[in-house]
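Methods — Computational structure assignment.
A single polypeptide chain was analysed. Its primary sequence is given first, followed by the predicted tertiary structure written as structure tokens.
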Amino acid sequence: MTRLRKPEWLRIGSMDREKIREVQQILRKLELHTVCEESMCPNIGKCFEKKTATFLVMGDICTRDCKFCDIDFGRPKPLDEHEPDHLLEATRRLGLKHVVITSVTRDDLPDSGAAHFARITEKLRNYDENLIIELLIPDLKGKEQDIKIVVDSKPDIINHNVEVVPRLFKKVTPQADYKKSLKLLKLVKEMNPEILTKSGLMVGLGEIKEEVVKLLRDLREVDCDILTVGQYLKPPSSDLEIEEFVHPDLFEEYEKIAYDLGFQFVASAPFVRSSFNAEEADFLLEN
């Protein structure tokens, strides 16, 4: 298969290596992982330069082998009971006002890690009641009682990415379920309407425009507030090839369609990722 040539709009500029090393040193000292590093995110330089990061909790080994992801698949280690304290210290040292926390999928745990997310949220909230806490969670196997554990900890934003259009689930993320993902977002809103819900998808994997628009409608039907749309970029270890480099004009069109459908905030561009510049939507939380 002939690989597509990367277009000019996907070129990454120079980075401030010193600022990046400063953030990395803090993370290593506190034994913390970030999805920025583990998934080889193209925005890592820009985020670390601003002293922001998306924390990856519950280890760096995932129980699911999604084809788009560069995080290791296998048997995870036991949870680190000190991780909430380490994460709080990193938040303090980096001076974060908006903290984003995600995790590997932990299907090996009885609650899929829901209680660990709750402990982290409560720890951060006790530190600073004004801190904006965004959780990017896996599907928790769709279990309502575990979703409620996370919701009851009262983060400001709960993000769960659908990742791709339904037709591509079996190819891209075979252990996930589209209807289960929509159900999770719906349940969050039903349990606590004050929590903002967020979801995101990758394009460039063979989807067509009509499928994307249908997905956006599905998300609005479950009252999803925030949307991110970004270009799929193949990690080094993945066999999942890029089918298309989506032109920025189409990303702009998806943004307009999403706003017309009622999303409160939309980020749609080639380098957009679910937590990149997440603080841009903070105005939605202002009283």
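Note: Residues 17-277 form a domain with the TIM Barrel fold (CATH 3.20.20.70).
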